[in-house]
Amino acid sequence: MALTKDTVIGFIGTGVMGKSMAANLMKAGYRLNIYTRTKEKAEDLLKKGAAWKQTAAELAAGSDVVITIVGYPHDVEELYFGDGGILANAKPGSYVIDMTTSKPKLAEEISQQATKHHIYSLDAPVSGGDVGARNGTLAIMAGGAETAYQEVLPILETLGENVVYQGGAGAGQHTKMSNQITIASNMIGVCESITYAERAGLDPERVLNSISTGAAGSWSLSNLAPRMIADNYDPGFYVKHFIKDMKIALESAEEMGLLTPGLKLSLSLYQKLAEDGEENSGTQALIKLFK
Question: Which branch of life, at top level (predicted)?
Fold first, then answer.
């Protein structure tokens, strides 16, 4: 199926990131079908012209491309499999793109089932938080058949500016695990750095100006440290979802026989943070444990 600007995109998942991603697709001129468990979360998009669908099955049947970005692997399974799922109801020759951070093995399973239904499948998790979603500057890591990737690339480039094909089914999810493993240890360093600067009597914003452009520089340091300093813990990415990601990464690493002590430490700290009632805060709330 050749995709054009007349392509109808079905979008499921209008959370912190999904809402902005869907809006960017509409700005680019794509027609959008929307389904989400809580219709109120889609009201802004519906006012802008998106069409509401009552079920995932109805959305899949009426769309050329289906994009999902939901919370957890079990949400993905519920959406894709079964008689009322996306794969059983999507049109032959259509495309499904799961942008949820999920299990690589689940991506492989979706791909296998999609092939049986003559549907093209990609796993394409993203990184960049609420800012990247809003600005259309996400990093997108894609896995699946390269021919399918090339077909949907214009759509992905509407959502991100660093779109990279990584390999076969599950490769996008494995790449996202590498991303989350990097962030996991880095977030500890960012928290320790800001806390150290404050304890030393320095102006943390001025310190940040010095260190963010040097060898210590990172996305988390530039984008999340200022929120830490301002005591702004609104979610660009939820603590509870980061815990989910780290658990998937740890499980995958253990299956491959890899040692990931930094990941284990970060997971244990974030789990304590969640136990303290911060599971719906942004990941920058980790600094509360250090303060």
Answer: Bacteria
